[in-house]
Structure prediction request, 471 residues.
Amino acid sequence: MIGTLAWVLRRDLRLALRRPAELAFALFFFLIVASLFPIGIGPQPELLRAIAPGVLWVAALLASLLALPRLFSADHADGTLEQMAIAPHPLTLIVVAKLAAHWLTTGLPLTLLAPLIALQFGLPAEAIGVLVLSLALGTPVLGAIGAVGAALTLGLRGGGVLTAILVLPLYIPALIFGAGAVEATVAGTGASGHLSLLAALLVFTLTFAPWAAAASVRIALE
Amino acid sequence: MAIPWFKYASPASFYGLAGRMVPWFTALAIASALVGLWIGLVAAPTDFQQGDSYRIIYIHVPAAWMGMFVYLVMAGWAAAGLVFNTRLSGMMVQALAPTGALFTFIALWTGALWGRPTWGAYWVWDARLTSTLILLFLYLGYLALRASIDDARRADRAGAVLVLVGAINVPIIYFSVRWWNTLHQGASVNLQGSSMATVMLTGMLVMAFAAWMYTLAVSLARVRAIIIERERHAAWVAALPREGSPAGG
Prediction:
């Protein structure tokens, strides 16, 4: 079991690292979208500081949404996913390993890039720390929920937009708690409540989403 | 005693049952809507605070209830479909979704029309409004997924997973939105908290009953169409008498 997990994790990481440019796309997207807001709204520091938590979280959310097709579609196209589904190991476990690899190549870089963009918005240091923490807790939630949407839309027309329509409403709790944590820090009311709820959401999602994603993969392969 | 639990799980036998029930539910829907509208628009007095604009609740509240309830019913059918692998369950989910989306939309629309004279704005980011909007997004997601899958059985199963994931998320979304709302702007808006006059409540409940009957009638009529469409190659469909076409045609 652990061997399978490690094997899928290593394989997905290696495949992802073979195409480093593709990994950078999501990060560039994050950077560009977050930079569009000051350009569109105007450079008033007060205003930027007020909207920063929401804008940064929404930008990170959209960037991780863009990366979702990487989870299954290549494996689906070349038949690897079918072999994984008929392997003697539980498909749920394989999905967990793929999610872990996906987070290491998408969620983690986004989390690490966020402080840089937060500086552009003039967030105080304490709030930047909370932002990193909230993204570290929140991006796995986005990936796990997104896996269900990505699996349901495998091989369908208009896959990318369809995934967004299915997944974005389900992202709202993570967005509320994540952006709320940063906002609460800026406002000085303390972020522990938001972060605890976000952590609870993470545990809940990681318990159920891989199972639902595995079921969705099986449906897509029928 | 053996109860034939699964007799009507077969589309062929449910087709006939639904056909017999549709006229009854239609009649009940029309009759109770007429009574409810009469109570709401004629019998009920004008509200002393809100004037006549409050009368929109006779449409608004039943629509909002129905929008939420239909999603639960869909989730029930989706679970049944995944557990028992019955074809009818997926068809019922498919038949209910447009009605649920319609009611959710009506609830938002009438809410906006009511909010303008009462709150002075068509839209406020109140917790209930926001979560109703998200519910509409969930309906639209289901309809979009369904529309992009050609194979009906895959659409049934994929849709069932999506509806169940959504149903698990609905309470989380509702409470997170409430939490978000209270932190942002405090309790700025309360739907009329005071007790309602009996005649108003009666009118609203009658209208809610009408909404139920309408949903039953429409979704059963729709599921009949879905059954016929999907089972068109089955022998029992070919044996049905053709309506509206010349004999033998």
